[in-house]
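Task: fold both queries, return tokens.
Query 1:
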Amino acid sequence: MSRLAEAVFAATGGRPAPAPDPVALAPVEPPAPEGTPAQVDAVQEYLNRHDDTLRAAFPKSLDYEAFQAAVAATLPRVAGCSPASLRMALVTCARFGLMPDGYEAVIEVQGRKAVFVPRYQGYIRLMYRSGMVASVHYGLVHETDEWEVRPSAPAPDDFVLKTRPELSDEERGTALFAYAFVVGRDGARSQVVYVNRHKAAEIRDEWSYRYKLAEQTGRRDSWWHRHFDHMMLKTGIKALYASVPTSPEVLALAAADDAGERGEVQIIHAPDPGRAALVADAERAHRAAEGSQELVRLPVKRNAAGRRYRGKKQRGGLKARMR
């Protein structure tokens, strides 16, 4: 495996178990068709009964009504999924504070199972939300672009890119590689990360369970099949985590994403609002306990002249004191 792939997975919570060999993969159901109006209404009613769970999972600082609207818009496509898997996928999405709108995240259909899939925009949203970076820069370099990479040169001369915005995507040619870097709050720029098509395919072939399933069944409908350039860019953004300050939420998102790629449970990687509240309470209790152990200085008694009062002197000399 390449050093780049090692860096990607080292930065996303450790090296996961390799995806199963295609010959050992479990049988896969065909994707559930779009739901009928009656199915959509039934799923909406089911989610309404669990609205308290979704609302509690969603960060209170964000717009929950916008999240509900995004869920309602995606229901016709996912209404054929099992209700339990759909609820788990939506709770996972809610805990990260991402919208299942096809931009920040999407709920994918695998047979009758709903799977939470963050898009690269979702990763970037969490990076900005963490407050650890000032800006995130990323993109694809195409055949007609002018570029130069000089790793030994100081920033920004180590990577120079000139594009022609007037050209269409077809005229720009094939995307050769993805790049990504961030600028920190102190103005310092991170190392530029590059992922070319070969490296992206190498990571896909070794780690993507969904890709292997799609290959085995002949459907070829995974995100790697349908949106290779998007996944190449997403891989580059995830590779940043080995060299830039990253919040626990971003690392947890990568872990949940990788679990979905491997066909594993995702929600165990999502932030738990209840656990976060317990940790905050414990930290407050710890600070209070530490504060109660500090020595308390008693007030100093002073005389009329403002000097420290040392008590009344005894009179009569040594003999008087010995009586």
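Query 1 returned. Query 2:
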Amino acid sequence: MDAAPKKRPYCSACSKPVRVCLCSRFKAPLLDNSIAVTVLQHSLEKNHPLNSIRIASLGLKNLTVVTVSDVNTEAEFHIRLLKSKLSSEEEEKEEPLIAATVSKNGYTCSVLHQTDSLKPDFDQILASQVGQDAISNGFMVKKLQRKLGNKPNKKLDEEFEEQDEEFEIAVPPGTALLFPSKGSIDVAVVNFEVKHLIVLDGTWQKAKRIYYENPWLKLLPHLRLNLGKLSLYGEVRQQPKEGCLSTIESVVFAMKGLGHDQEGLDALLDVFESMVGDQRRFKDENMSRSQPRATRGLRL
């Protein structure tokens, strides 16, 4: 029996194969970004070889990556104001200010909050005092994902529901979402201070699903980029339409537009460009080796 092929070694820091490790390409220390960034990363994007958030994680000091999965059964969101001085144990017992339930694919969403017996949607809450308090004071949002599983010692077709906490995120005052929704504001003309930026990481379809399955994002002001630039991804990763950028490019250009120091940010794009160059080179090498057979791109 032939021995199993050895797995190629990977860098534990950048998650790339050692031969194309990104770590040594950072020529400056971590950038102490004044605008903190929270990335909601689709669960299928994390291990993609061309995922660009690995560069942001290595280059930005104030960055948090939160893994977000699709709602395949049902999810609950509990929202509490940040100004609460309750202990963690007391918070667990306290009813959330806003509670929302989202079904698969976000097709239905019911919302309950302490001050109203009605079931408004987030657009209505946004215009209410409850929504304004959440925006001005900041809030905590917890996602509870309901999943189907098999009962122990039962037949395989007998299922039960279990509920797991997927994330809990602090959304401080001054937070904005980078997402080109209807009514979003061009980063270049923002007339308020942005202290914290939330960014969605995934393909365009995955990012849209994150947005619609996390309705609490509607509580935030929405920002967009109008740059007319082509992504450095080029031909190595398909883009749905012209003007779509990688997540690291979106973060960099948004922070530049909001007045952040540009020198350190440009260095992040240099590393990203080198990573894209690696993929392009190996793709070309793979094509030349496999001709005249059908070619297939090699992922790093």
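Both queries returned. Flag for query 2: The chain is about 25% helix and 25% strand.
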